[in-house]
Amino acid sequence: MNDLVIRGSKHLPDADATTAFGAALAGVLRAGDVVVMTGDLGAGKTTMTRGLGAALNVRGDVTSPTFVIAREHPSLGDGPALVHVDAYRLGGFGELDDLDLDTSVDDAVTVVEWGAGMAEGLSEDRLHLTLTGLDDRTVTVETAGPRWADIDLVAALGLVAD
């Protein structure tokens, strides 16, 4: 993960702010984007993805896919679908690859919770979000790949530049 560039961070004081951040994130994402989320247990990864899914206007409630591993939410409009993966119980990239996510990565926004160290193989272009804290959170945004070089994530997401 040496190719990561820190773009900034944002304080998220509660679940509503975390959901709103997810909605703002949807504004910069497009089909083919991969978002890798890490952080403390209960830090808001699914809450943020719920806001993202609502803003993308996808079908179904966005809930933790811990036991089903991956869940696809088709678009209800003209935007991309959302593929939501929980890699917590996976043993590495080989098991993630067995999910055949590459068949949907180009057509969807793919969010992989607990994906650091294994989801990097899905795309050269990725956002890495690290959530710390529980009720009073901070999200740190890092990017990898040329897709993000000219996108002002500080302005789009209200980040404090690091």
Short structural summary:
Its main location: cytoplasm. The protein is of the alpha/beta class. The protein contains five helices and seven strands.
Number of domains: 1
Rg calc: 14 Å
> What is the fourth-level CATH superfamily?
P-loop containing nucleotide triphosphate hydrolases
CATH topology: Rossmann fold
Strand tally: 7
Q: What does this molecule look like?
A:
With 162 residues, the protein is of the alpha/beta class. The protein has a single domain (5-157), classed as Rossmann fold (3-Layer(aba) Sandwich), CATH 3.40.50.300. The protein contains 5 helices and 7 strands, in the order E-H-E-H-E-E-H-H-E-E-E-H. It has helices at 15-26, 45-56, 93-97, 102-105, 153-157; strands at 5-12, 34-39, 70-73, 81-86, 108-113, 126-132, 137-144. The longest helix is centred in the N-terminal third of the chain and has 12 residues, at 15-26. The two termini are 18 Å apart.
Keywords:
162 residues; alpha/beta; seven-stranded mixed beta sheet; 28% strand
SSE layout:
Layout: E1 5-12, H1 15-26, E2 34-39, H2 45-56, E3 70-73, E4 81-86, H3 93-97, H4 102-105, E5 108-113, E6 126-132, E7 137-144, H5 153-157
Parallel strand pairs: 2-5, 2-6, 4-5
Antiparallel strand pairs: 1-7, 3-4, 6-7
Helix pairs in contact: 1-2
GO cellular component, one term: cytoplasm
Main location: cytoplasm
Organism: Dermacoccus nishinomiyaensis
